[in-house]
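Structure in, sequence out. Go:
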């Protein structure tokens, strides 16, 4: 009979993190904390200060996370970690984003013109050039 390992949960930087024992499908507590901090937009130095370790330790941990999740960038690792259920944003963030009723209208903005369009007829330009050479 196969036993399933239930992950342990904790909260870090506005994310619910899950971790499990070694050699399981779940990350370690340190890896879960690092991926949650990366998802929150923190730098390696900020994460190291929070954990009380060297930024190189965080770099090595994030490199291991990227390898384990088969991701090439931090954004891809965060998306894959969310898909696997390692981290999940807390409900408060989702509720705040749904407060504004005009989110659909805000999503479809008209493009702003950055360049002024100059209109001149071709014949007017020829007259100007013709008067210079006459």
């Amino acid at each position: 009979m196969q036993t399933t390992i239930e992950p342990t949960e904790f909260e870090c930087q506005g994310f619910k993190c899950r971790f499990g024992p070694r050699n399981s499908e779940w990350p370690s507590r340190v890896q879960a904390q690092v991926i949650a901090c990366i998802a929150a937009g923190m730098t390696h130095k900020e994460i190291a200060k929070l954990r009380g370790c060297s930024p190189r330790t965080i770099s090595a941990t994030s490199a291991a996370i990227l390898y384990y999740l088969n991701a090439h960038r931090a954004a891809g690792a965060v998306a894959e970690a969310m898909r696997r259920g390692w981290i999940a944003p807390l409900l408060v963030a989702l509720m705040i984003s749904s407060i504004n009723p005009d989110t659909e209208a805000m999503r479809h903005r008209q493009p702003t013109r950055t360049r002024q369009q100059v209109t001149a007829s071709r014949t007017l330009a020829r007259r100007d050039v013709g008067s210079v050479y006459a």
